[in-house]
Amino acid sequence: MKRVLIAMLAVVMMGLGGFAEAKLRKVAELDSPGRILKVALLLNHDGRLFYRVRRFGAPVLENSQLGLRFDHAKALDRNIKFIDANRSALAQTWELPWGESREVQNHYQALVANFSQARPEPQPALRFSVEFRVYDDGLGFRYLFPKQAGTPQLAIDSELTEFNIKPKAQAWWIPAGEWNRYEYLYNHTSLSELGQAHTPATFRTEQGLHLAIHEAALVDYASMWLRRTAGQRLRAQLAPGGITASVVRSLPFNTPWRTLQVADSAAKLYESSNLILNLNEPNKLGDVSWVKPAKYLGVWWSLHLDTETWSTGDKHGATTEKTKAVIDFAALHGFRGVLVEGWNKGWDGDWFANGWNFSFTQATPNFDIEALSRYGLAKGVHLVGHHETACAVSHYERQMEDAFALYQRLGIDQVKTGYVCDAGQIERQDRQGELVSREWHDGQWMSGHHLRVLEAAARHKIAINAHEPIKDTGLRRTYPNWLAREGARGMEYNAWGDPPNPPEHEANLFFTRMLSGPMDFTPGVLSLKGRGGQAILSTVAKQLALYVVLYSPIQMAADLPENYARYPKAFQFIKDVPVDWQQTRVLAGEIGDFVVIARQDRGSDNWYLGAVSDELGRTMSISLSFLDPSKRYVAQIYRDAEDAHFLRNPHAIVIEQKALTANDALAIRLAPGGGLAVRFVAL
Ligand code: NOJ
Ligand code: CA
């Protein structure tokens, strides 16, 4: 009888998550400040380390393993011994020099748990710590390796770090480890169908909890991809190293923070992404008043339409004469920047394959860079520099200092960089120009490269906007000259993409890519036409709304000047909309469906509202209680006309004015594939 009972008990315990896990010993526990999230650290019978996360007592992450594997040292996969733990807490507010809000709250409880290997012989016992910071709407954790005798360096092959999501969930994700870097359309699948994904990856549980997994402060380390190993269990998969292990580091060092955002709604999920900034180090550059959020035009869309070329010849876009005309247009309409691509030597022939031909200090003969920068500055317009590397990255690093010095002398203080090649094909050379390895855009070596660029640029008071970048992990806090980046499918896919971006794309981006930070999406193509007249799947009002929805401290007005001249009324919103915000409120939204957001200008009492929809039309009523109740406003409304439709009638827009206050509600009607942009001018 007794034996039967024991057997039955064992079956019950197995049912509760496996016999081994039933034996887990809790070694430390930590609550968020408002006791919403709770994290526990646990060891099992053979010394494997796990953590788990609960929200209001309900499991979010079930036991998820922690640990790493090394090239030569013994893995941290078992025989781990708990030593002790220290707690701390912080409640602080800090300021962003530019951003989607001026102030950021940083309020967490922290725990550093110290461990060592229990049975390391014949090697010395490796000591390490796991640090957790737990907020009410998310958490971050990282591994710390203190200086220790016998282990000067570690080569990390892989992480065992897991995110074992308990409640059944759906996922929004793009594939990682594929040739097109981050430039994929978003998959919406059940979590159990995810393969290998980039972060941020976003999840919604059956109960409506919203989760996002990402990382913060990716410095001198390989990016974390998420690989599903079974069921809803995700494991950190490090981007490969070009030579050996994914990561090689001298001790002491710490890994980037692995992050989990947890929110009740999609709207709150976006707001919880301050986590990423909070987990980064404060500004290292000191006075950054030289970093200027601004809008820019360019010799750019024509290149993607293929009506002009980067290369020299009859169709060359970057000529002195054509650039002067764009500068004139920028000055007339109040734009600070003019980006000119194809200005330098090296574009002729197959530039994708000939990165080592690029000069970053020599303009083509028909581009008088000295005269043009003087001409622009006299009108308050700065040329925006362009450094396309085509992945000849060492070749670029050798010229970088001189290139930034040239730009600084010419008053060029923003530079767009580019890394066009397939993932895994970055060219890393030694000093003699011999190929050392092919690297990934998001591997350890490239994480170092981007910081070398930022530091060199900062020495010349230049800010950077990287295309085909490494993903954003909040380093703009530490290096405020990292203005924006691409790192997703941008507007260019509407010129030549097959397929172009579908109407749901921006509502996907907002709840995934945009959780990581600003994107140089380059909105505002009012002509709604790509290469050869291919239709852009958007209404005009939606193009305007993107300036408010998709945050960036630099925003391009991507269309040709002649197209803006054709649509002066809609263009007015692009001229008016600021790029630097006092505060941001997500008013409504669902992942991949729609977003309604309001942002207050940093430089005035004005507010701006942007709303975008997917392929469905929508109506809703939005309270204007975010406005200052003591003020009256004139709302300049740019809305889809009643018969607007992204396929059938995309240009139909109504522009009207209304007197409104904080007590009013705004009735919103978004056309299929449509949007809404409103400027609230405080009286
Ligand atoms: C890809 C970038 O995203 C695009 O904006 C740029 O025009 C080309 N590379 C050429 O550098
Ligand atoms: Ca690109």
Description:
It is a single chain. By secondary structure, this protein is of the alpha+beta class. The chain is built from 14 helices and 38 strands. The strands form seven sheets. Strands 6, 7, 8, 9, 12, 13, 15, 16, 20 and 21 form a ten-stranded antiparallel sheet that branches. Strands 1-2-3-4-11-18-17-14 form an eight-stranded antiparallel sheet, with no helix packed on it. Strands 29-28-25-24-23-22-30 form a seven-stranded parallel sheet.
What labels describe this entry?
single chain; 683 residues; alpha+beta; ten-stranded antiparallel sheet; 14 helices; 36% strand; disordered N terminus; binds 1-deoxynojirimycin; binds calcium ion
Briefly characterize the structure.
The protein is built from 14 helices and 38 strands.
Major pleated sheet: 10 strands, antiparallel
- Estimate the helix proportion, in percent: 10-25%
Mean pLDDT level: 96
Task: Please work out how many helical segments DSSP would assign.
Answer: 14
Q: State the total count of DSSP E strands.
A: 38
Unreliable segments of 5+ consecutive residues:
1-20
Beta-strand content: 35-45%
Output the radius of gyration.
26 Å
The set of bound ligands, ions and cofactors reads: 1-deoxynojirimycin, calcium ion
What structural class is derived from the secondary structure elements?
alpha+beta
Distance between the termini: 84 Å
How would the global form be characterised? globular
